[in-house]
Amino acid sequence: MEIDHFQLNRAEYFVPIVVKIPGRELALAKRGGAEHTLIDFVGEIKDLIGGSTVSNVRDNLNIKLSDATAAELAHRPIEYDTGFTLLPGKYVIKFLARDDETGRIGTYQTIFVVPNLNKEDKRVPISSVVLSSQRVDLKEALFDVEKGSHKEKEVAVNPLVADGKKLVPSVTRVFGGSHEMYVYLQAYKQTPEGNPPASQPLFAFVSLYLGDKKVL
Predict the structure, then answer these.
(1) pLDDT tens-digit profile of 23-37?
(2) CA dist., res. 99 & res. 200, Å (int)
């Protein structure tokens, strides 16, 4: 799982979450003769200090198990993404995935922090730095996520979506030499409320190292 954060306004942050499951898991359903399977996803975010639930999600992926799809999934993971709008704070996320065809279940739990970038006064406040090797067309999907109003709202505020394409974060951080690597982040100009930000140039540098040696 990868959890990122992007500032929407002075109070709220959009937190996109990407989950990857090995595609070989679906080979079990295919060998059982299934033509498709549903993978249910259930997620819950709680405030780490108070213990109260602040957000949750329940979705499912309807995955067709044709021979071509099964062959493709054998070499790539299943990806599921969603997003939440949260205030700064410490949270714990609990996530469950269940294959309806085989009954197999996977769970994941971790703690994450949404920082208050308004308090950053020594450096330029920035969002998470997202590394990716693919931008996918929103209309071209190997499987369909159940559509709903919350999905439409996510797309509207998700900074990883632009021009009908979504930048997919690399959860594994492993990149092949034959693919481009995208580096994406947002930088925020802090100004007093009610005052427009002054126009100033912003410079970004990306350096890649092999051990202690800079290679790019």
Answers:
(1) 776 666 666 666 677
(2) 51
